[in-house]
Amino acid sequence: MIQITLKDGNRIQVESGKTILDIARGISEGLARVAVAGEVNGVVKDLFTPVTEDCNLNILTFDSEGGRHTYWHTASHIMAQAVKRLYPGVKLAIGPAIDSGFYYDFDSEKPFTPEDMQAIEEEMRRIIKEDLGVERFTLPRDEALELVKDEPYKVELINELPEDSEISFYKQGEFTDLCAGPHLPSTGKVKAFKLMQLAGAYWRGSEKNKMLQRIYGTAFPKKSHLDEYLHRLEEAKKRDHRKLGRELDLYDIYEEGPGFPFFLPKGMVLRNFLEDYWRREHEKRGYQEIKTPIMLTKELWYRSGHWDNYKDNMYSVEIDDAEFAVKPMNCPGGILVFKRKLHSYRDLPQRMGELGLVHRHELSGALHGLMRVRCFTQDDAHIFMTPDQIKDEVIGVIKLIDEFYKTFGFKHHVELSTRPEKSIGSDELWEKSTTALSEALQDQGIEYKLNEGDGAFYGPKIDFHLEDSIGRTWQCGTIQLDMNMPERFDLNYIGPDGEKHRPVMIHRVVFGSIERFIAILTEHFAGAFPVWLSPVQAKILTIVEKHIPYAEEVKRRLEEKGIRVELDGRNEKIGFKIREAQLEKVPYMLVLGDKEAEAGHVAVRSRKEGDMGSMPLDEFIEKILSEINSKAL
RNA sequence: GCCACCAUGGCUCAGCUGGUAGAGCAGCGCAUUCGUAAUGCGCGGGUCAAGGGUUCGAGUCCCUUUGGUGGCUCCA
After folding, report:
1. How many Cα atoms occupy the beta-carbon half-sphere of A190 within 13 Å?
2. How long is the CA A115 to C1' B18 vector, in angstroms?
3. What nucleotides of chain B have any atom within 7 angstroms of a protein Cβ?
4. Residue with CA nearest B1 C1'?
């Protein structure tokens, strides 16, 4: 007998050699039915794994991440099996579970068509119906290689496994795949699934390799869960900033400027208030503001290292006989400003902000609404400082970013990126900079993900990622520590010893790109922005024409207080005007008729809560102003 | 840039196996003066993304280009 400690701390005795599924059944039939995998001492295992020694055991269902991944992984194998049955010549690459389902990469002579997808789905249904048992086995390397000799990608994978690693396979019916597992005990366990999309993907994610065909899918234990998931995706699409931006007349992108967005009057209101907020908050924190040119000579970009490391993304032009490049970053301009004068250590840190418009030639396939564009405004700042000021300055920026995101109610996650292949500077400087950043993060008790080799070419960085409506994350804020540019541009300051010293610089953005931030903002609020940012904060709706004079009076009173207000005095029914204002997502509608005109009242309707009844105009003004001033969400 | 898919009036979309463009919303006009999510009637609007080809005939088939969508790569 062995002793099993369950998740709730209970201990049970079972016969050695019982499988996880057996143990689950011993606990309850219901649990056994929904069990998809087991976590033994923290490692996710197949349900059919025999347990032979004392351990902690957690029975996983689809509701846990480990359970879901097991479920999806098996779904992915079922898909691969279906593809193999229908197209025996297709070679298999890899097929993991991901956050929202699974995919499998195939190397196929002929690209898959939507009709093929249907055929694959049908075959998958058949495999599920066959309810094939899944078995796991391991092989020594030479036998493993022999088994997969017709699958070149699998051969490559096996050859790259470390010497001592166990090479495991999973077999269901006639289909066997190299796989670490775990898996469901049989194909019949997969209930509702759907193949979602077809995409190209490079083998091992490198554009130097062959492009494979990737099929994405998802699966759920119940049809209703799948339907719910698909419904959620539909709902999320309604919040797409590209759709809302056009509908609400905020911004748009035309064919005439791929990747170059236009901001419309209402979008500009939003944008200007964001920038005002930004300026005020930066001023409070000792930042100065500058504006540097969009184009500078190529010489400068050679010196900064941008030309060598970033030229694929840069636009350049010839003016007279000189060559210029359009700035893809603001730093060289900022550096020239710093260099204008000799600096004392007493003047440091120097924090210099710039809302700088940069242009980057992004690959056409990468463009995505306002999220990924070819020109955008960075809410940039460069901080020049002494080495012993690094930590405080980095922490200051972390706090600033945190406060900004809180203002909008955004949740975010943090990543630390280290030295990339293409980069400048010595290992020592990189080491020092990277350590400084991770220390600042630890000091603030911030959890972060390490992103090896993903830093800027001049230094490591801390990135802040925000989510869009369908859960994709986008980098917004970033803090980059740079000891290289000061070297290249021979920046210096005079220390207390009267000697020249090399300053360190931080490149940082809070919004990241104003455009991208506005896109996230649009999706986050589904276009219903907080009052302080709403392009129109209140809309006055008259019942009939004779109320227009009072309406104009109300409008003037609101405008005097700086409230952005519109008047709808059209000869339309009130229901119609309300409907329009609601669709425009105006926070407050003021309905004005006889009663209001006589009493000097306004009948307030909020887009969130509906009819709020009549109140004196002054009371409404007070209410909306307090919401605006507190930046209420 | 690569892979797949898509492109019809301002917007959302019909248009079967090729036979000379259709709806709703929006817009405009007229009537209606009406209290919390669509008043009625009428009118105008499309070289079917662009270019080329097949055909007696192409929105529908083929090729090229442009733009978009979802991925891959890359990135704020």
Report:
1. 35
2. 23
3. 1-5, 11-12, 31-39, 66-76
4. A363
A162-210: per-residue pLDDT in tens? 888 888 999 999 999 999 879 999 899 999 999 988 889 999 988 888 9
Q: What tokens does A217 get?
A: 């899918």
User: What is the pLDDT averaged over residues A588-609?
Assistant: 95
CA-based nearest residue to A148, from A91, A110, A96, A95: A91
| SS3 state of residue A9 | coil
CA of A249 to C1' of B62 (A): 40
Match 């969130």 to its residue by tokens.
A608
Is the pLDDT at A424 greater than 90, yes or no?
no
For the full predicted model, state whether its pTM sits above 0.90: yes
Confidence of residue A546 (pLDDT cuts 50, 70, 90): very high
| Å: A577 CA to B22 C1' | 30
SS (H, E, C) A101-119: EEEEEEECCCCCCHHHHHH
Distance from residue A349's CA to nucleotide B75's C1', rounded to whole Å: 29
Catalytic amino acids of A? 331, 360, 378, 380, 382, 461, 507
Tokens of A280: 């005020």
Kindly report, residue by residue over A23-70, the tens digit of the pLDDT.
888 888 888 888 898 888 888 888 988 888 888 888 889 998 889 999
Adjacent-strand bridge partners of A61: A35
Distances (CA, A) of A428 to A205, A390, A459, A507: 30, 16, 12, 20
**Interface predicted TM-score (ipTM) of this complex, two decimals:** 0.92
Q: How far apart are CA A270 and CA A327, in angstroms?
A: 26
User: Rounded to 5, what percent of chain A is helix, strand, coil?
Assistant: 40, 30, 30
Within A254-358, residue ranges assigned H as helices are 265-284, 298-304, 306-310, 331-339
Q: Which nucleotide is nearest to A212 (CA to C1')?
A: B3
Instruction: Name the packing angle between helices A265-284 and A514-524 (round to 10°).
Output: 110
Return the residue matching tokens 């309810």.
A131
